[in-house]
Amino acid sequence: MQGRNQYYVYIMTNKSGTLYTGMTNNIKRRVYEHKNKLISGFTEKYNISRLIYFETFGEVYSAIAREKVIKGWLRKRKIELINKTNPDWEDLSSDWYD
Questions:
Q1: Does residue 47 sit in helix, strand or coil?
Q2: 6, 52, 60, 83: which is deepest, by most CB within 10 A?
Q3: 43: number of CA atoms within 13 Å, CB side?
Q4: Is 0.85 topped by the overall pTM?
Q5: Does the CA dihedral 90-9-29-96 come out positive or negative?
Q6: What are the residue ranges spanned by the domains of the chain?
Q7: Are 13 and 19 in contact (CB under 8 A)?
């Protein structure tokens, strides 16, 4: 999964369905930070800990542009995107840290 010059746009959630969209060059590290509340702010406050969607990019500018697009969407459209690939909203990182 982790490779050279890979960037990720991701969506995470909590038990009540609050959505958080972010971008990183190391998805395993970033999700770990969210899960363990190592980043103060929104995700810590709302207990955002489940990875439910991500896309991979080879170019940082493409990832930044995509993150901005998704962040500009209404919640309904984000949910439609998630449901296309992860209709049960399973935590895609559930077995990453065993």
A1: coil
A2: 52
A3: 22
A4: yes
A5: positive
A6: 7-85
A7: yes
Residue 12 to residue 95: CA distance in whole angstroms: 16
CB 38 within 8 A of CB 19: no
Q: What kind of fold does domain 7-85 have according to CATH?
A: GIY-YIG endonuclease (3.40.1440)
The first and second tokens of residue 29, run together, are 């590290």
pLDDT for 40-84, tens place per residue? Answer: 999 999 999 999 999 999 999 999 999 999 999 999 999 999 999
The Cα–Cα gap between 56 and 48 comes to: 21
**Distance of alpha carbon 74 from alpha carbon 71, whole angstroms:** 8
Measure the N-to-C terminal CA separation of the chain; round to a whole number of Å: 16
